[in-house]
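Input record (one chain):
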Amino acid sequence: MQGNIPHASGSAVSQLLQIIKDFSSFLENRKQSKQTFLPVSESSQSLMKNWGRVSVPDTVFSFEGPPNAAVFIIDSEGGFFKGEAGQLLVKILGAMNLSPDQVFICNAQVPEAVHSKIREMSPGIIVTLGTKAGQLVLDVPSPVDQFRGKFHEYQGIRVMPTFHPSRLLKHPENKREVWDDMKQVMAYAGLP
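The corresponding structure, as predicted from the sequence alone:
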Protein backbone atom coordinates (compact mmCIF):
# COMPACT_ATOMS: atom_id res chain seq x y z
CA MET A 1 0.00 0.00 0.00
CA GLN A 2 2.86 2.38 0.80
CA GLY A 3 4.14 2.14 -2.76
CA ASN A 4 0.84 3.55 -4.11
CA ILE A 5 1.05 6.85 -2.19
CA PRO A 6 3.77 9.06 -3.70
CA HIS A 7 5.88 11.26 -1.42
CA ALA A 8 4.21 9.99 1.77
CA SER A 9 6.36 9.22 4.72
CA GLY A 10 6.10 5.79 6.27
CA SER A 11 4.69 7.08 9.55
CA ALA A 12 1.96 9.15 7.82
CA VAL A 13 0.89 6.11 5.80
CA SER A 14 0.84 3.88 8.86
CA GLN A 15 -1.22 6.51 10.73
CA LEU A 16 -3.70 6.67 7.85
CA LEU A 17 -3.92 2.89 7.75
CA GLN A 18 -4.55 2.82 11.52
CA ILE A 19 -7.36 5.39 11.15
CA ILE A 20 -8.97 3.33 8.39
CA LYS A 21 -8.66 0.17 10.48
CA ASP A 22 -10.15 1.91 13.57
CA PHE A 23 -13.02 3.33 11.52
CA SER A 24 -13.70 -0.07 9.93
CA SER A 25 -13.77 -1.58 13.42
CA PHE A 26 -16.17 1.14 14.58
CA LEU A 27 -18.51 0.49 11.63
CA GLU A 28 -18.41 -3.28 12.26
CA ASN A 29 -19.34 -2.73 15.93
CA ARG A 30 -22.24 -0.46 14.87
CA LYS A 31 -23.43 -3.10 12.43
CA GLN A 32 -23.32 -5.86 15.08
CA SER A 33 -25.32 -3.69 17.48
CA LYS A 34 -27.89 -3.08 14.70
CA GLN A 35 -26.96 0.62 14.54
CA THR A 36 -26.25 0.82 10.84
CA PHE A 37 -26.80 4.56 10.43
CA LEU A 38 -24.31 7.09 11.65
CA PRO A 39 -25.62 10.29 13.16
CA VAL A 40 -25.03 13.02 10.58
CA SER A 41 -25.51 16.75 11.10
CA GLU A 42 -28.00 18.69 8.95
CA SER A 43 -25.20 20.60 7.24
CA SER A 44 -23.44 17.32 6.38
CA GLN A 45 -26.70 15.84 5.06
CA SER A 46 -27.21 18.93 2.90
CA LEU A 47 -23.64 18.70 1.62
CA MET A 48 -24.08 15.01 0.73
CA LYS A 49 -27.46 15.65 -0.91
CA ASN A 50 -26.04 18.41 -3.11
CA TRP A 51 -22.67 16.81 -3.82
CA GLY A 52 -21.69 17.28 -7.45
CA ARG A 53 -24.42 19.82 -8.22
CA VAL A 54 -23.53 23.25 -9.47
CA SER A 55 -24.20 25.77 -6.74
CA VAL A 56 -26.21 28.82 -7.80
CA PRO A 57 -26.54 31.62 -5.28
CA ASP A 58 -30.10 32.26 -4.04
CA THR A 59 -29.60 35.97 -4.33
CA VAL A 60 -29.01 36.99 -7.91
CA PHE A 61 -29.43 40.60 -8.97
CA SER A 62 -30.78 40.84 -12.49
CA PHE A 63 -31.88 43.77 -14.60
CA GLU A 64 -32.64 44.75 -18.17
CA GLY A 65 -33.58 47.80 -20.17
CA PRO A 66 -32.09 51.10 -21.27
CA PRO A 67 -30.27 53.11 -18.60
CA ASN A 68 -32.05 56.30 -19.71
CA ALA A 69 -35.56 54.80 -19.44
CA ALA A 70 -38.39 57.10 -18.39
CA VAL A 71 -39.60 54.50 -15.85
CA PHE A 72 -37.44 52.44 -13.47
CA ILE A 73 -39.30 49.35 -12.16
CA ILE A 74 -38.29 47.22 -9.18
CA ASP A 75 -39.92 43.79 -9.23
CA SER A 76 -40.47 41.90 -5.96
CA GLU A 77 -40.51 38.54 -7.72
CA GLY A 78 -37.97 39.04 -10.50
CA GLY A 79 -39.78 37.21 -13.31
CA PHE A 80 -39.97 40.42 -15.33
CA PHE A 81 -41.88 39.69 -18.53
CA LYS A 82 -42.19 35.91 -18.15
CA GLY A 83 -45.26 33.83 -17.31
CA GLU A 84 -48.78 35.10 -16.76
CA ALA A 85 -47.67 37.87 -14.40
CA GLY A 86 -45.10 39.02 -16.96
CA GLN A 87 -47.71 39.06 -19.72
CA LEU A 88 -49.96 41.14 -17.51
CA LEU A 89 -47.10 43.58 -16.85
CA VAL A 90 -46.59 43.91 -20.62
CA LYS A 91 -50.32 44.75 -20.96
CA ILE A 92 -50.09 47.35 -18.19
CA LEU A 93 -47.08 48.94 -19.87
CA GLY A 94 -48.90 48.86 -23.22
CA ALA A 95 -51.82 50.74 -21.67
CA MET A 96 -49.24 53.31 -20.52
CA ASN A 97 -47.93 53.59 -24.12
CA LEU A 98 -44.70 51.84 -23.11
CA SER A 99 -43.10 48.61 -24.27
CA PRO A 100 -40.85 46.36 -22.19
CA ASP A 101 -37.76 47.63 -24.02
CA GLN A 102 -38.58 51.22 -22.99
CA VAL A 103 -38.43 50.60 -19.22
CA PHE A 104 -35.57 49.65 -16.96
CA ILE A 105 -36.49 46.76 -14.66
CA CYS A 106 -34.57 44.99 -11.90
CA ASN A 107 -35.39 42.53 -9.15
CA ALA A 108 -35.40 43.25 -5.43
CA GLN A 109 -33.25 40.23 -4.48
CA VAL A 110 -30.04 42.06 -3.56
CA PRO A 111 -30.81 45.32 -1.71
CA GLU A 112 -27.29 46.79 -2.01
CA ALA A 113 -27.32 46.23 -5.77
CA VAL A 114 -30.74 47.88 -6.14
CA HIS A 115 -29.67 50.96 -4.18
CA SER A 116 -26.42 51.12 -6.13
CA LYS A 117 -28.25 50.86 -9.47
CA ILE A 118 -30.65 53.65 -8.45
CA ARG A 119 -27.70 55.90 -7.49
CA GLU A 120 -25.91 55.05 -10.73
CA MET A 121 -28.91 55.71 -12.99
CA SER A 122 -30.66 58.49 -11.04
CA PRO A 123 -34.06 57.74 -12.63
CA GLY A 124 -36.86 60.26 -12.90
CA ILE A 125 -39.43 57.91 -11.36
CA ILE A 126 -39.45 54.48 -9.72
CA VAL A 127 -42.34 52.02 -9.69
CA THR A 128 -42.13 49.21 -7.13
CA LEU A 129 -44.12 46.06 -7.85
CA GLY A 130 -45.19 44.23 -4.70
CA THR A 131 -44.44 44.42 -1.01
CA LYS A 132 -40.78 43.34 -1.04
CA ALA A 133 -39.74 45.97 -3.61
CA GLY A 134 -41.71 48.72 -1.87
CA GLN A 135 -40.30 47.85 1.54
CA LEU A 136 -36.78 47.75 0.13
CA VAL A 137 -36.90 51.21 -1.43
CA LEU A 138 -39.02 52.99 1.17
CA ASP A 139 -37.61 51.20 4.22
CA VAL A 140 -41.05 50.42 5.65
CA PRO A 141 -42.16 47.19 7.35
CA SER A 142 -45.83 47.39 6.24
CA PRO A 143 -47.43 45.39 3.43
CA VAL A 144 -47.84 47.24 0.13
CA ASP A 145 -51.60 47.66 0.76
CA GLN A 146 -50.74 50.25 3.40
CA PHE A 147 -48.43 52.49 1.34
CA ARG A 148 -49.41 52.06 -2.33
CA GLY A 149 -51.40 54.55 -4.35
CA LYS A 150 -49.47 57.71 -3.57
CA PHE A 151 -46.04 59.04 -4.35
CA HIS A 152 -43.21 58.64 -1.86
CA GLU A 153 -39.61 59.84 -2.13
CA TYR A 154 -36.32 57.99 -2.18
CA GLN A 155 -33.23 60.22 -2.31
CA GLY A 156 -35.23 62.92 -4.09
CA ILE A 157 -36.75 60.47 -6.61
CA ARG A 158 -40.52 59.95 -6.81
CA VAL A 159 -41.57 56.38 -6.01
CA MET A 160 -44.94 54.81 -6.78
CA PRO A 161 -45.48 51.53 -4.95
CA THR A 162 -48.20 49.30 -6.39
CA PHE A 163 -49.40 45.72 -6.40
CA HIS A 164 -47.41 43.08 -8.25
CA PRO A 165 -49.07 41.65 -11.40
CA SER A 166 -49.06 38.19 -9.77
CA ARG A 167 -51.39 39.58 -7.11
CA LEU A 168 -53.71 40.88 -9.83
CA LEU A 169 -53.96 37.36 -11.22
CA LYS A 170 -55.25 36.15 -7.84
CA HIS A 171 -57.22 39.32 -7.01
CA PRO A 172 -58.46 40.92 -10.24
CA GLU A 173 -60.46 43.40 -8.16
CA ASN A 174 -57.13 45.22 -7.52
CA LYS A 175 -56.61 46.02 -11.22
CA ARG A 176 -58.46 49.36 -10.93
CA GLU A 177 -56.13 50.43 -8.09
CA VAL A 178 -53.03 49.56 -10.11
CA TRP A 179 -54.38 51.46 -13.10
CA ASP A 180 -55.01 54.51 -10.85
CA ASP A 181 -51.39 54.22 -9.66
CA MET A 182 -50.09 54.00 -13.23
CA LYS A 183 -52.13 57.04 -14.33
CA GLN A 184 -50.27 59.03 -11.65
CA VAL A 185 -46.97 57.68 -12.98
CA MET A 186 -47.94 58.61 -16.54
CA ALA A 187 -48.89 62.15 -15.52
CA TYR A 188 -45.67 62.69 -13.55
CA ALA A 189 -43.44 61.16 -16.25
CA GLY A 190 -45.21 63.12 -19.00
CA LEU A 191 -46.35 59.99 -20.84
CA PRO A 192 -49.26 60.46 -23.29
